[in-house]
Write a structure and sequence with these properties.
The protein is of the alpha/beta class. The chain folds into two domains: about 140 residues, Rossmann fold (3-Layer(aba) Sandwich); about 160 residues, Glucose Oxidase, domain 1 (3-Layer(bba) Sandwich), CATH 3.50.30. It is globular. The two termini are about 20 Å apart. About 35% of the residues lie in helices and about 15% in strands. The strands form three sheets. It has a six-stranded mixed β-sheet, with helices on both faces.
């Protein structure tokens, strides 16, 4: 399988990319590095036009199977409206990454093409033997053989991770009770980095949340900012709409909320609750199942999730 390495956001050190590429090649894949992937323009890997060119070139190259981001950082919001949806849709090629790449996952989802929220070059190079990396390798092997992702990957991930869904009061919720997965045998995941998601709200590139399982993670954010972003989701109706009679209109709501790592987000003693309890409090009126402590985010335990 041919993997094209791109840097759609921040610039990256060549040695980090070299190490990640070496891991992918050791798995038997052909790997090429985009023209501007190792470039630098301030904090970015290149001008917006250059980053877009690398993405479009990879999408239009008939030999390329997968696009893989070197890192996140910041920059994807600058290029969302410069990548034609019809090119993504016609190519049908997944993009792999997380953090700021959340914005591109949303774009791919808008085009109706699945993508993979998963580790990038530093993780692949630093710890190629880690269990999450091994899972990613197995996922790639399946895609190489079938040109499609395993239908039940997300469901198996949830079971393998042994994260117990709870309701807003902290009571366990059955994974198979129909409420948690909206009667879906293969739950559709949307989401990613919470801060990046907030930046997408109100734009044409935000996700369609209805009936999906929303997963979120973040890094180096203060708890009150996390609450503010959750309140924004709540006010958008992502968790449902409270009706005058006290019932909840869930026609546009998510089927569940998976909470990954909140790395370097220490509890704030001035907040009345810690992050987990605050999340339950925000969702309490909406009866949305919640998974807490999922291995997704800015840590080694960052299991791949199929988006869309």
């Amino acid at each position: 399988m041919h993997i094209r390495i791109i840097s759609p956001a921040g610039n990256v050190k060549a040695k980090v990319v070299d190490a990640g590429v070496a891991t992918l090649r050791s798995w038997g894949h052909k790997v090429t590095v985009a023209e501007h992937a190792l470039g630098s323009y301030g904090r970015y890997s290149g001008y917006p036009e250059e980053r877009v060119q690398d993405i479009v070139d990879a999408l239009e190259d008939p030999t390329v199977d997968v696009l893989w981001a070197t890192r996140g950082g910041y920059g994807c919001m600058q290029i969302l409206d410069r990548i034609p949806l019809d090119i993504i849709r016609k190519a049908g090629k997944p993009i792999v990454g997380y953090s700021d790449i959340t914005a591109l996952h949303a774009l791919w989802s808008k085009a109706g093409v699945q993508s993979v929220h998963a580790p990038m070059m530093k993780h692949l190079g630093d710890d190629p033997g880690h269990r999450t990396t091994k899972t990613l390798r197995e996922l790639l092997d399946f895609y190489a053989a079938h040109n499609a992702w395993p239908q039940h990957h997300n469901r198996l991930f949830m079971a393998k991770a042994k994260i117990q869904p709870v309701d807003a009061d902290g009571a366990p919720v059955s994974l198979d009770n129909g409420v948690a997965l909206a009667n879906a045998d293969c739950p559709v995941f949307v989401g990613g980095n919470l801060s990046v998601l907030t930046g997408l709200h109100g734009t044409p590139f935000d996700y369609d949340y209805a009936g999906r399982i929303l997963f979120i993670e973040d890094i180096a954010e203060q708890p009150y900012k996390i609450d503010r972003m959750l309140q924004q989701l709540r006010l958008m109706g992502v968790f449902g709409v409270l009706m005058p009679d006290g019932s909840v209109d869930k026609s546009g709501a998510v089927a569940g909320l998976v909470c990954g790592h909140f790395t370097d987000c220490p509890d704030d003693p001035s907040m009345p609750a810690n992050i987990w309890d605050n999340i339950r409090w925000v969702l309490q009126p909406y009866q949305v199942p919640i998974w807490l402590g999922s291995p997704i985010g800015h840590e080694l335990n960052n299991f791949p999730v199929i988006v869309g």
